[in-house]
Specification:
This protein has 296 residues and is an alpha/beta fold. It is 37% helix and 22% strand.
């Protein structure tokens, strides 16, 4: 590779991102004329028009877009290598962006965020709440957190939470007026509090016992997107709820809720932090993984 092309390619990517030569100049802290010269020189060397200019904006040509699509991962790796070199001088530092489902944030991360911030004061941890599975590379994240059953094979995954179970619960007053279901199919006719994912999909209640798996599309008077609200609605007698155990451990212990179908709710793998296997691991991410991982 002609090494002179490297800085010009970086300028090209910045112009495309900013949509103007002046914006790229401000981003790169160089003169607009230097930006224009770098792009023009690259186009002349390659013999291809890479940017379409107008009086109002700049946009990649078809050839330019194809080049940028293949260029961005390489430039990201260069940025990562430079950040890693800087961090290695002293201690983990810099921004760390994670895609995390709301449940994992509540149950796994929140109880220890203060301790993590104290242990690594130079890391700026940004948590984006997303219930859908996210391509961390495409989304610009350093890593993501998801249930083990949701992970893709090309990801490195490290467990950061214990096994977890679901719990079907209802208030004593609800069961005074309604029979306790002993099989998932007996949920038909019950008032169930449903959960809607951010994708718009309604959660189908999932059960398993002795190798038999059942999914139920339940019905009921409430649809919510927050586990705390679902648990509280069940406590208030609105109907049956199906949530992770930790959300209802206290009201089960003090009698505000009664559990049913427990033998149909076996434990399963909890939450994992995942990141691409092909990407070099930054010290900041290593610090996060080491801090939150579950000891063997």
């Amino acid at each position: 590779m002609n090494r002179a092309h490297l800085s010009q390619l970086a300028v090209l990517a910045t112009v495309a991102q900013c949509g103007s030569f002046r914006g790229a100049a401000r981003e790169l802290a160089i003169a607009p004329s230097a930006v224009s010269h770098a792009v023009s020189s690259l186009e002349a060397r390659l013999g291809v028009r890479l940017l379409a200019r107008s009086t109002r904006s700049v946009a990649p040509t078809e050839e330019g877009a194809q080049l940028l699509d293949r260029l961005r991962p390489a430039l990201s790796e260069i940025d990562l290598a430079l950040e890693t070199a800087v961090e290695a001088r002293d201690r983990p530092a810099g921004n760390l962006r994670l895609s995390v489902p709301r449940t994992a944030a509540h149950l796994v991360l929140t109880p220890r965020l203060g301790a993590f911030a104290s242990a690594y004061p130079d890391i700026v941890l940004e948590i984006i709440i997303e219930d859908r599975f996210t391509d961390v590379v495409e989304g610009g994240f350093d890593a993501g957190v998801r249930l083990g059953e949701s992970l893709q094979r090309d990801m490195i995954a490290v467990r950061i939470g214990p096994d977890i179970r679901g719990a079907v619960v209802g208030a004593p007053a609800y069961f005074e007026a309604n029979p306790r279901p002993r099989h998932p199919r007996e949920l038909v006719g019950h008032r169930c509090i449903r959960f809607r994912f951010s994708s718009g999909i309604l959660y189908r209640w999932e059960f398993e016992k002795e190798g038999e798996e059942i999914e139920m599309a339940v019905e009921g008077p409430l649809i919510l997107d927050e586990d705390h609200l679902i648990a509280q609605a069940a406590i208030d007698g609105a109907g049956l709820a199906f949530v992770f155990e930790p959300y209802v451990r206290t009201p089960l212990a003090d009698g505000r809720l009664i559990r049913v179908l427990e033998d149909w709710c076996p434990p399963f793998d909890g939450f994992f932090v995942y990141y691409p296997s092909r990407r070099q691991m930054r010290p900041a991410l290593r610090a996060f993984v080491d801090f939150f991982k579950v000891s063997a």
